[in-house]
Amino acid sequence: VPYETLNKRFRAAQKNIDRETSHVTMVVAELEKTLSSCPAVDSVVSLLDGVVEKLSVLKRKAVESIQAEDESAKLCKRRIEHLKEHSSDQPAAANMWKKKRMDRMMVEHLLRCGYYNTAVKLARQSGIEDLVNIEMFLTAKEVEESLERQETMTCLAWCHDNKSRLRKMKGRQNENEPKMGRKSKSASDYSKENDDLVMETIKGKPELSCLEFSLRIQEFIELIRQNKRLDAVRY
Asked: Where is the CTLH domain (predicted)?
């Protein structure tokens, strides 16, 4: 999980920096174009202010991205160091490692069972907060609670953040589907064909995962329930 987080933050940082660099390039090009036509001083000052603003944003985004990557890299390093402790020749160190492993397993089990507060307290008391994936489970908790409130925005945001992984999962599911010979079509076959046809009508959205598509359908249904039929059609 820490490595996946590092990889994800690296790719996000690359996109952010590329985008802000493009913005800087555009305003600099506009400034150069304006300077070639003997402009007024006020217009040049305004363009220079724009360049400074874009450079400031680029610097801020770069610093934030580097800090996030550095945090993830340090977390990976701490977990590697913890694994190295397993090979210690000192019995006391080996016993301590086994205790931490047991605490880690208990925290993971509590998180999977939904006892988030207990898991957080145990991790804090045992000093293993850097060795367990509490943040991931807390994010899942937020998504679950939002869906229980019949809200989809939090889950859709999660789908957007993890769209690459969801797309890969969808691809593996398609590859694992059994290939059957020809047979007479049942009602479920026609239903599946209809679902496939609906998917094909989503122009410009070939990357939708099954989860995100289900959420989009639910949002459409909720609009119908609220008698917002025109909004539903537009959606």
From this structure: 136-231
CA atoms of 40 and 37, how far apart (whole Å): 9
- 112: its two tokens: 């999977």
Instruction: Give the tokens for residue 202.
Output: 């989503």
**Centroid of chain to Cα 90:** 41
Residue 38's region, left for phi above 0, alpha for psi from -120 to 50, else beta, is left
Q: pLDDT tens digits for 168-222?
A: 776 665 566 555 444 444 544 544 544 554 444 444 444 567 888 888 888 888 8
Give domain limits for the chain.
1-87, 89-149, 151-176+187-234
Q: Are 104 and 127 in contact, with CB atoms under 8 Å apart?
A: no
Q: What is the mean pLDDT of residues 103-123?
A: 93
CA distance 132 to 186: 48
Ramachandran sector of residue 125 (left: φ over 0; alpha: ψ -120 to 50; beta: rest): alpha
Tokens at residue 40, please?
């007024």
